Amino acid sequence: MHVPVLKQGEYLIASIQSALSDPDLIQLRDDLAKRVGQYRSRGVIIDVTVLDIIDSFATRTLRAIAHMLKLRGAETVIVGIQPDVAFAMVQLGLTLEGVGTALDLEEGLAYLNRHPMRKVRHEQ
Amino acid sequence: MNNETRIPIQRSEDIVTARELARGMARTAGFNGSDLTLIATAISEVTRNIVEHAKHGELVLALVCNGSKRGIVIVARDEGPGIADVPQAMQYGYSSRNGLGVGLPGARWLMDEFEIDSRIGKGTIVTMRKWVG
Questions:
Q1: Alpha-carbon distance B126 to B59, whole Å?
Q2: Domain segments of chain A: what residues?
Q3: Which entry of A100, B50, B98, B104 is 20 to 30 Å from B115 by CA?
Q4: Are B12 and A94 a contacting pair at CB < 8 A?
Q5: pLDDT 10s digit of each residue in chain A, 124 long?
Q6: Domain extents for chain B?
Q7: Does B103 touch chain A (CB under 8 A)?
Q8: B110 contacts A94? CB cut-off 8 A
Q9: CATH class of the structural domain A5-123
Q10: CATH class of B5-131
Q11: Are B48 and A22 in contact (CB < 8 Å)?
Q12: Whole-model pTM?
């Protein structure tokens, strides 16, 4: 299932629409790495609200995406992790250390707006 | 076992199918939302193990009763290379490849009961159970 990526000003929003297989997650990673360059984006929001599972592979891939995009000059924030999913991740010992998270899309935008990477650019 | 569902596991897409079928079955058994997520996540981990290490195998799901207890039993079976050192593979953070080393030990934490039987050259059978309540 392909994940649509929308351009919103200097941000990209990847809005996951249904359960993703492992290749779908890899595809999302590669898409975002490419599009951050194409659109010169400074921030990326990945909306995982519809995911009813975030297992070890998904966690590893989300972390990889965030770290790759940082190397490309963009900050990533994961939004919409559901309470049951958060519980299962904690039970599994999975963390998104070093990766921005926010409650929902609105909080995700607020997170990117106050992020230092963007501030520095606007002050220059 | 009654109401047995067998799902062939060969490709990573089968992982998604397996966890969605299991979620539906576990719901009929009376599991609540967070247990459904734990069960589906455990299935995701053990079926990925089949896809990555054994190439193909199967997942068997069944609803079970033990006295007044209702639950689900999940058997993940493959005829892959087997695991040389099961205690090592069950250590959290140990990975034979580039994974997180979370799969099997993690699945054990998510379920109530977990057994693993692996023989070199024969394959691996993981049996997990979770009870309602």
A1: 9
A2: 5-123
A3: B98
A4: no
A5: 789 999 999 999 999 999 999 999 999 999 999 999 999 999 999 999 999 999 999 999 999 999 999 999 999 999 999 999 999 999 998 999 989 999 999 999 999 999 866 555 555 5
A6: 5-131
A7: yes
A8: no
A9: alpha beta
A10: alpha beta
A11: yes
A12: 0.91
